[in-house]
Automatic annotation (TrEMBL):
This is ABC transporter permease. Residues 91-291 form the ABC transmembrane type-1 domain. One of its GO terms (cellular component) is plasma membrane. Its main location: membrane. GO terms for biological process: transmembrane transport. The chain crosses the membrane at residues 21-43, 93-118, 214-235, 270-294. It comes from Roseomonas indoligenes. The lineage of its organism: Bacteria, Pseudomonadati, Pseudomonadota, Alphaproteobacteria, Acetobacterales. PANTHER family: ABC TRANSPORTER PERMEASE PROTEIN, OLIGOPEPTIDE TRANSPORT SYSTEM PERMEASE PROTEIN APPC.
Amino acid sequence: MGAVSRFLESDLFWSFRRTPTAVLSAIVAFVIVVGAVFAPWLAPYNPFDLASLDLMDAFNPPAFMPEGTAAHLIGTDDQGRDVLSAIMYGARVSLLVGVSATAFALILGVLVGLLAGYAGGAVDAVLMRIADVQLTFPNILIALLVDGVARAVLPREVHDEIAIYVVIVAIGISDWPRFARTVRGSALVERNKEYVLAARVIGISPARIMLTHVLPNVLGPLLVLATLNLGLAIVSEATLSFLGVGVPPTQPSLGTLIRIGNDFLFSGEWWITVFPGVALVAMVLSVNLLGDWLRDALNPRLR
């Protein structure tokens, strides 16, 4: 309770309360996360339970249209799946991949950045040149390359079983240079400060100095970068799934739902792709707006 009280009395929470955009974004993000995490209990139907599907319910329009029914508030798709339930379950996969890929990129980038910034010299030059080369390619191209290599190396059955992990690694590998360069810049500044030099004198190991002395001083920029990168990771996953190389069809994400609905967009069943698209936009936009607020709130020059 003491930590909660301190947070409620902090400048960060005061800034949050005074920023309507941040409050609204937090509410939208909270609703989406709760709906996704608790989808098995909150969703009206289980859209991926084949025994409960009825093709006679296919292409039902939303409830606010003349032929719509209250049983399916925003309609059904070509297989009779409730679109609202499919969005809630699809958001679970999108959030899982986005958060996991961001965490993977964060850990890899922090390790590389700390090593490059603290060691310096040839180690720094080699690691940063690798990051520079990767930054010249679009993230989605790197992710497609990693996924393609995994498909070529692994048997099809094995790849289908671990497809979601392949996507997480592919997106994480494409995003780590941003974290590495941020941490490396801060590590270069911190490594020559007196407290780091004192730690070296008393015999503390370089690994401990980096993790317990240098890393805490870069947590603020890392938190902001991770928040902004989460939105990019969700979009990358949706793009891969839309192209048909993302998560497997048995675990469809919002990108998969948009791709499925795109086939029926011009035949009049617009709700199958529009509502998953709106959910994706709301999710990414709320995360990005929170990241923008957090960047400004943690920047002392803007206080």
